[in-house]
Design brief:
The chain has 153 residues and is mainly beta. It is 5% helix and 41% strand. It has a domain at 3-91: Beta Barrel (OB fold (Dihydrolipoamide Acetyltransferase, E2P)), CATH 2.40.50.140. The chain contains one helix and six strands, in the order E-E-E-E-H-E-E.
């Protein structure tokens, strides 16, 4: 899935390099931090560009406004699973992009882009549940009362 974030590069981390154990070829990776607006508060996403050619081609600089196309993939490491967020395309505002033949259009995120509550919770009363609704947080059943579902083991 292609996810596009537009924002400002706030950090350029040092380039990482090594040698592939599988192929014996050198590899290069550069990580960046992009700050973007979503709702009332700014958010950040960390991503990497893999390959010396792409790092040089993208030439991402701190303070630059960009749209980055990211792939997110879970990978297994020595200590468990981790998310790998890699950038495969960079667009700069005002730069005309010619679509490549066979290129897919970005997929909209299935998650709504909503901001945080506009008003703080201070001084607000918690609402009582409507008849037939469960209270939140859930209350513990009284002795002898049956749970509406089997307990988790």
């Amino acid at each position: 899935m292609d996810i596009v974030f537009t924002g400002v590069i706030t950090a350029v981390l040092p380039m990482q390099q090594g040698v592939s154990q599988r192929t014996g070829q050198p590899w290069y990776s550069q990580s960046y931090l992009l700050c973007y607006e979503q709702g009332q508060f700014p958010k950040s996403v960390s991503f990497s560009v893999f390959g010396q050619e792409k790092i040089q081609q993208f030439a991402i600089q701190q303070g630059e406004q960009l749209s980055v196309h990211l792939n997110i993939e879970a990978k297994q490491g020595q200590k468990g699973y981790f998310n790998d967020v890699t950038c495969w395309k960079v667009e700069r505002p005002g730069q005309v992009q010619q679509p490549m033949q066979g290129q897919q259009q970005p997929v909209q995120s299935p998650f709504p882009q909503q901001g945080y509550a506009q008003q703080p919770m201070q001084g607000q009363q918690m609402q009582q549940p409507m008849p037939g609704q469960a209270p939140f947080p859930p209350q513990q059943p009284m002795q002898g009362q049956q749970l509406p579902f089997p307990p988790q083991q």
